[in-house]
Each structure stands twice: as structure tokens, then as C-alpha cells.
Amino acid sequence: MTGRDRVPVGGDRMPVEITYSPWRELYWQLFEYDGDAWNDDVLLPWAEANQPSVRELGLIGRAEARRVVIPDDPDEYTPLEALYVLSRILDVLIAPYQWPVSEPEPVLGDRWEGRLPAAGGYEAFCASLGCRRITEESFHPFVHEIVTVIPADDPAQPPSLEAEHWPGYFAGSLLLARAGVTVRAGAHWLTPGVAERSTLYWAWWRRNRSTHDRSHGWGGNSQWRTDFRRDYWADGQLFYNVDAARRANRAAGEELALDDRLELLRYRCSTVRDHGPDVWVWDTHWSEPVPRGGLSLLFNLPRRGQRVCPVLSRVSS
Fold first, then answer.
1. What band does 82 get if pLDDT is binned at 50, 70 and 90?
2. Which residue in 49, 67, 197, 284 has a CA-CA distance of 20 to 30 Å to 182?
3. Are strands 2-9 and 12-19 parallel, antiparallel or unpaired?
4. Residue 295 · residue 312 · CB < 8 Å
5. What is the DSSP letter of 115?
């Protein structure tokens, strides 16, 4: 099935079209694969054989695509639902990086019952899709997923990067996956047990923490009608959850203050105080400027305790 949408953008008509079935087929190929050459047998042959799908991904990754309204379609899978399948594939491919080798492996859980892919497939696959790897010199939640927190002596110290566990990638201006990182931060910014282990929203599966996306709790077919969250870095702005800006709030989320809702939107998890595993986060959206004069300047959104977060520093071209 194909998800299609054509709407005016800046006075023109820009096609946004993603063929759904190749991505779903790749997911099941990974699930059924029983060999050891994940790249050579599955991932790279798929990318070579599905160049139209690769080109479609490039089109929806263009900066101007963020303004394209993609409506729900009860009869066809939409581009957002096709992107969601891709996000599940990436969740599977980053799984080998989520648990220290020196510790016993956890139970993988019932969300992925296939074998664990070999490390390295994630990077090779993203490269075959023409994605840009994120390389950062400072922490920003737009592009970094917190895996481990090292407490800083100064409680006011903002998060700083200590290590990268897996890289993040953009498809053009569209954020596909954040990099998993270890950060050092003061207690005003991050509580280790909270920032590391609280529910990760807009994520299907992690080996090392609980996750929650809109597919959870639905049946084997209905769960695939889940939308991908689109975030873009474009025109000097960071755009979070752009599709939520074009629909009426289905639940206002008034149980949380605005800064708490923005925390969950930007970090995709709780940071200091755990807000719980089932908060309505899906309709929050936000944009913020990347300051002029370079991308390694400080970000300008003060939060509780006068925390100020460093902005996106650099995205490789």
C-alpha cells in the first residue's frame, strides 16, 4: 500500500509520497533472518533494490516538507505511518548498543521477538539511505537521547557530552534518530535515575528502559497505523512535532505545567522529577531558534532553577 499526500507549499504543489510496503517488508525480513551477515544479506540489498523508497525519504526530509499537511487516511497507509515503520527498524538496529557488554543482557521483552542484529548494521543502513550522521560537540536534547548520567559536583552544571553509544541521523532536515549519549550534569538539570530510566516517549522499544508510543496497547494490525513524530532543523529553527501544530488537541494535557510539557517534548523523557509512564504528550509542539553566530552558542530557554541548555552545536553535511 502507498501513502500519498499532495498539498500546496509556498504557492506550489509539493509531492510527499512514501510507499509503505517496502519498509514493512524490511521489518519482517529482519524479524525472520537467521544468518549472521545482516548488512550483506538484508540491509544493503534492500536499499539497493528499493531506490525509489530511498528517494522518497529524501523528499520528505527536505526543509520545506515540514509545512506539508499529511492528513489521516482510513483507507491507505500515510507517509507518517511509513516513517513509523522505519523508526521501528532503527529501534531494532540500535539495540546492540544499549547494554554494556560487561553486564548480563536483559530480557529483550515482547516488542521484538527476533534475533538481535549485529552491531554496525545501523550505521551501514543509514548511510545507504543517504542520511547525514550527527556529530556534536555539546549536548542538546533535540539530537541526543540520554542513556547514562554522571552527576556533576556543581548542581548548576548544564549537561555536557561524555560519550556516544550510537550515532544519530538526519534525512535531509528531518530528524530520524537521536544519538544515544552519556552526559555529565548537575542535579538542577538531571537526576540520574530519572533521566536514564523514566519512560522514553515517542519510542517503540529500548532494551534498557521503558518506552511509550501510540502503538502500545493496540492489536497486531492497528498498531501499524501509528504516526511518526516529525522534527526538523531548518531555516535557523528547531521544529518539534510539526504535525501536532496542525491538528486540534485531542487532550490538553493540563495536568502538567507548560515547562513540564516542553521538557517531555524536548527530552522525550523526564529529567529531574518523573512525570510518569502514561502522560498525554502527543499534541505538544514547539519551535526555537538556533542563534546567529554559530551553532555552538547557548540555547535561550530558561527552565526551573535557571537552567539554560546548550543548543545544537553542529550537524555534519
1. very high
2. 284
3. antiparallel
4. yes
5. P
- Residue 163 maps to a domain: yes
Expressed as residue numbers, the domain containing 222 is 2-306
CB atoms within 10 A of CB 310: 18
C-alpha cell at position 65: 516538507
Using the Cα atoms of residue 82, residue 144, residue 315 and residue 91 in order, give the sign of their dihedral: negative
How much is the pLDDT for 223? 87
Q: Structural domain tally of the chain?
A: 1
Gap between the Cα atoms of 208 and 95, Å rounded: 9
According to the model, what pLDDT value does residue 249 have?
65
86: region left, alpha or beta (phi > 0 left; psi from -120 to 50 alpha): alpha
157, three cell numbers: 552544571
> DSSP letters along 148-175, please?
EEEEPSSTTPPPEEEEEEE--EEETTEE
H helices then E strands: how many in the chain? 8, 13
Q: Which of 146, 202, 160, 97 is nearest to 309 (CA)?
A: 160
Across residues 143-160, what is the average pLDDT?
97
Q: How far apart are CA 12 and CA 137, in angstroms?
A: 38
Question: Is residue 46, in this structure, part of any structural domain at all?
Answer: yes
Is position 317 within any domain?
no
- What cell was used for 69? 499537511
d(CA 265, CA 287): 11
pLDDT at 253 over 70: no
Residue 215 dihedral angles phi and psi, to the nearest 5°:
-80, -20
